[in-house]
Amino acid sequence: MIEEVFADVKDRMNRAVESAKESFATVRTGRANPSLLQNVQVDYYGTPTPLSQLASVQNQDARSLLVTPYDKGAMKDIEQAIRDMPNLGANPSNDGSVIRLSLPELTTERRKEFVKIVKGKAEDARVAVRNVRRSGKDDLEALKSEVGEDEIARAEKELESVTKQFIEQIDEAAKRKEAELLEV
User: Roughly how many angstroms between the first and final C-alpha of the chain, as a whole number?
Assistant: First the structure.
């Protein structure tokens, strides 16, 4: 029973860490990367649709991306969705068949803003892990009548150490992203 609670808690914490890493990937560094457009939602015939379902995105070079829509009729909608995306700073241009995105050079101020964004995303991920810990603790408390209090106390200590490990993973990923952002 306690093992089932731990399996569930570890799975949910692992998903929180993976979500944080994916979220960090959407923060722009000095290099062009297709993952920058991962969260773009395009209003396609009145339905918000992920860009990845409407177009392919490739690196053209270190500072530009090439977006090739599968449906040329959605080109203006895709262009508008990219233009509306916060923290990108790129102005898309199209030639009738593809959309080109040239990413401007990051200034020191802009890099520092992106570091703040990464720190905020890391804190959100830590909160998610702590929420999972709290629900796991509640699940353990519910088992108190079935297993002894000593078992529950040991399990809670182990839960704390597991939580600490996952928070350290988030912190490490955030540090890597910050170093990548501040690298000139």
Answer: 51
Look up the pTM and report it.
Answer: 0.70
- Distance between CA 6 and CA 1 in Å, rounded? 9
121-138 CB burial, b ≥16 within 10 A, e <16? bbeebbebbeebbeebbe
pLDDT in tens, 25-59: 877 666 777 877 888 889 988 889 998 899 999 98
Query: Do 174 and 122 contact (CB within 8 A), yes or no?
Result: yes
Q: How many C-beta atoms lie closer than 10 Å to residue 119's C-beta?
A: 13
Sign of CA dihedral 177, 181, 182, 184: positive
Closest CA relative to residue 64, chosen from 99, 108, 97, 39: 99
Q: What is the CA radius of gyration of the chain?
A: 21
